[in-house]
Specification:
The complex is a heterodimer.
Chain A lengths: L2 H18 L8 H11 E2 L13 H8 L6 H13 L13 H9 L18 H4 L19 H5 L3 H12 L21 H12 L8
Helix pairs in contact in A: 5-9, 8-9
Chain B lengths: L1 H22 L3 H17 L3 H13 L30 E3 L4 E3 L1 H11 L5 H4 L12 H11 L13 H14 L10 H5 L5 E2 L2 E2 L6 H8 L4 E3 L4 E3 L1 H11 L4 E2 L4 H13 L9 E3 L1
Parallel strand pairs in B: 5-8
Antiparallel strand pairs in B: 1-2, 3-4, 5-6
Classes of the chains: A mainly alpha, B mainly alpha.
């Protein structure tokens, strides 16, 4: 029995206690999950399992993104172990393709066809190429990233891993786990590494 | 419809122009441009066409029972629309649940007019060519609260539970991309691309935003309701789809509405 299923088993008990309670407190994540299963329906590729939390999502929910250092480090290590690095040992791809992936936020919604147009939606949250003025600010600016962080193999491997599973480095990061969640392929991630680190990429101009 | 689309095209042109010029200017000039754009779009907004159409629909005899919605109880007594939206969501004894405007309209369409729930919710989200009945009705009822202070109650235990569920839902991280509502609407001063994001957990953010929904969106020439807004946020969160008017969607509406309490309702508004 893994941690997810233990939590689910305990959830039944908690829900029964909750129903008997006269004094209200905010529902727990498991109670929220019950509500979501009742009040939402699967559509397209967005099936109902998506509302079930894994350990990372659960901990970041209950702590409002402020987990204890110990617990965070433990789960970050688990996430790090889930990263699959490229078998050919090459982390860097084509920045031009990476630019396309960075510019679109399509993919994985109930309207999107699996395998259709998709991307990382990077510009939704980050500044990247200084010439592109339409960028979001939820994440930090990544303009001139290679100049700031270097573009050697260590930097490439780090960026690959961060894109693959952001939670391995900062547990409650708002950035999706593009590799772990199956949203971007190995090649997609390589192309985004190139967009960030290739000296000829507009990000570094 | 010609008038609506004409006004929408004008709004879109103003948007494109003001966005383009804003890039070339300083931050304060940019703010001024945005204010000017907001004023212009509001002045040219076709929102009132939705309101008028909604009023006709409200008074029209429809459904198997061939009656209007003029006896619909939105919480202020049968037929009272004035101020109703500023007090919603609220607990309704007849259905024994907390309801927002849209789920309550469904109740009235089924109990008074005799539609089945399936008929009443068959087409709740319209498009630019053909808005939905719900969009017209929501615009009309909401307009009847213009200038009235938001005063949503949490006195009833079910209202309080709805608010608390809304708060918990707001912070619940899940889905393919690990997002909660708070991922985008929990930290001040953030934006997606060029779009500023209101902090809906705060009084300030909720007040500014909630009091202008339903809203006419210049970018796609449509008037959108709060149920649509929540639906499309969950789509972008990579969640499955919420059931229309479900307790979960009402709870999130409740959370935002209560956070906006005290603010003057100014909608239906005009959006980018």
């Amino acid at each position: 029995m893994n941690r997810k299923s233990i939590r689910l088993a305990l959830g039944g008990v908690a829900a029964a206690l909750f129903a008997a309670q006269l004094v209200h407190a905010d529902p727990t994540p498991l109670q929220v999950r019950e509500v979501l299963h009742r009040d939402f329906h699967a559509r397209g590729q967005a099936d109902m399992s998506r509302v079930d939390q894994d350990d990372v999502q659960w901990l970041c929910t209950v702590t409002h993104n402020h987990p204890s250092d110990k617990k965070a480090q433990e789960l970050e290590a688990e996430q790090l172990a889930m990263i699959k690095y490229p078998a050919d040992g090459k982390y860097i791809g084509n920045w031009k393709r990476g630019e396309k992936l960075a510019s679109t936020g399509k993919g994985m919604t109930w309207k999107d066809k699996p395998g259709g147009t998709h991307g990382g939606g990077c510009y939704n949250c980050h500044q990247l190429a200084p010439a592109q003025l339409s960028y979001g600010t939820i994440g930090p600016s990544l303009a001139h990233y290679a100049q700031k962080r270097g573009s050697g193999v260590d930097a490439q491997k780090y960026v690959y891993a961060k894109l693959y599973d952001s939670k391995a480095f900062k547990l409650c990061s708002e950035m999706p786990r593009f590799g772990t969640s199956g949203s971007l392929s190995e090649q997609d991630i390589k192309d985004l590494v190139a967009y960030l680190l290739d000296p000829t990429s507009p990000v570094n101009k | 419809m010609f008038t609506i689309r004409g006004a929408a095209a004008l709004g879109a042109a103003v948007l494109a122009l003001s966005t383009a010029t804003a890039f070339a200017q300083s931050a304060s000039q940019e703010r001024q441009e945005i204010k000017k754009y907001q004023r212009m779009t509001a002045e040219n907004s076709p929102v009132d066409l939705w309101v008028l159409e909604g009023e006709d629909l409200w008074k029209k005899k429809r459904g198997p029972n061939d009656v209007s919605l003029e006896r619909c109880d939105l919480g202020m007594g049968p037929g009272v629309t004035k101020g109703a939206y500023a007090h919603l969501p609220r607990y309704f004894k007849d259905t024994d649940r907390v309801q927002d405007l849209e789920s309550r309209l469904v109740t009235c369409m089924t109990t008074l007019q005799g539609f089945t729930e399936k008929q009443a919710t068959k087409r709740v989200f319209g498009n630019a060519d053909k808005p939905s009945d719900m969009e017209y009705l929501a615009a009309y009822v909401a307009s009847r609260s213009r200038g009235i202070r938001m005063q949503v109650s949490t006195k009833n235990p079910k209202e309080k539970a709805s608010y608390e569920l809304g708060r918990a839902l707001f912070h619940y991280r899940a889905g393919t991309w690990d997002f909660s509502c708070a991922s985008c609407h929990g930290t001040p001063g953030k934006r997606i691309r060029m779009q500023s994001l209101p902090v809906l957990s705060s009084k300030k953010g909720a007040s500014g935003t909630y009091t202008t929904w339903p809203g006419y969106r210049v970018s796609n020439s449509q008037l959108k309701t709060m149920q649509w807004r929540i639906n499309d946020c969950f789509r972008q969160q990579r969640f499955p789809e919420p059931n229309y008017g479900s307790d979960a969607t009402v709870a999130l509406t409740m959370y935002m509405a209560v956070n906006a309490n005290g603010a003057i309702y100014r909608g239906p508004g005009t959006k980018r």
